[in-house]
Amino acid sequence: MNNLIILLSIVTQIYGSIHISNINYSLASELLFETVDKTIRPCENFYQFTCNKWIRNEILKPGVDRVFRNTRAHFEFYDEFFYKILHGKKEAETEATKIIKFIVRRCTTEYYIQNIENINIDAAYQQCLDKYELFASYAFHTTILNCIFGYEKILQLNSTIHEMFEMLKNEFKLLVREKDWVDLESRRRINEKIKDMDLEVTYD
C-alpha cells in the first residue's frame, strides 16, 4: 500500500494529475529501491518489506525522532551549508556567506585555543555554531532559495509582487473616483496617501 502511495505521489506531484503514460518510472524505481527491503517476505510483514530499508538507512539529527521524505532536502541543505561550507573546505559563493564563514571560523579558532585541553576542533565549531546559528540562518535560507528557485526566478517573483502592488494602488484610486460621496479635498488626501504607499521587497 505504501508503495502504491509513493507511485501515485510521484505522478501527481510532478504532473499535477494521474496520466499513466507520463509516469516517471525511473524516479519511481529509485524511490522504491530506497524503501523496499527484499530480504523480508511481504506476506509475513508488509510494513517491514516496504519501509524497513528506508528506516534503517535514515540518520536522524540530534533531537529529531523521525524524518519524512519531504524534509530530507532540508537536512541535506543544512549539512551542505553548516558543515561543508562554513566548517568544511567547500568554497562560499556569496559575500554574505564568506563573511559568516570568516566570523564562525575565527570564533571556532579562538574557542579551541582557549579550551584546547578539553575539546576538539569540531566541538569548538559546534559551540560557535550555536552562538551564530540564528545570524547565519539568513544566508542559509538564501542559499536554499537559490538552489530551489534560482536567483533570476526570485527576481522575477519580486518584480511580479511590485506589479501587483501598483495594480492594487490603482484600484484604490479608481474606487475613490467612483464614490460620489467623497468630496474633492478628501479625495485629494486619499490619493496622496495612496501615492505615498511604497513596497520594499529585497533579496540579497
Can you give a write-up of this model?
- 69% of the residues lie in helices and 0% in strands.
- It has 204 residues and is an all-alpha fold.
- Helix 1 packs antiparallel against helix 2 (25-35) and helix 5 packs antiparallel against helix 6 (121-148).
- The longest helix has 28 residues, at 121-148.
- The model is unreliable at 1-23 and 65-70 (pLDDT under 50).
The helix content is: 55-70%
The tally of structural domains comes to 3
Largest sheet: none
The overall pLDDT average reads 69
Low-confidence parts lasting 5 or more residues at pLDDT below 50? 1-23, 65-70
What is the strand content? under 5%
What are the salient characteristics of this protein?
single chain; 204 residues; mainly alpha; 3 domains; 8 helices; 0% strand; flat; disordered N terminus; Peptidase_M13_dom_2; signal; MetalloPept_cat_dom_sf; Peptidase_M13_N domain-containing protein
Question: How would the blueprint of this fold be written?
Answer:
Layout: H1 2-15, H2 25-35, H3 46-57, H4 72-85, H5 95-114, H6 121-148, H7 151-178, H8 184-196
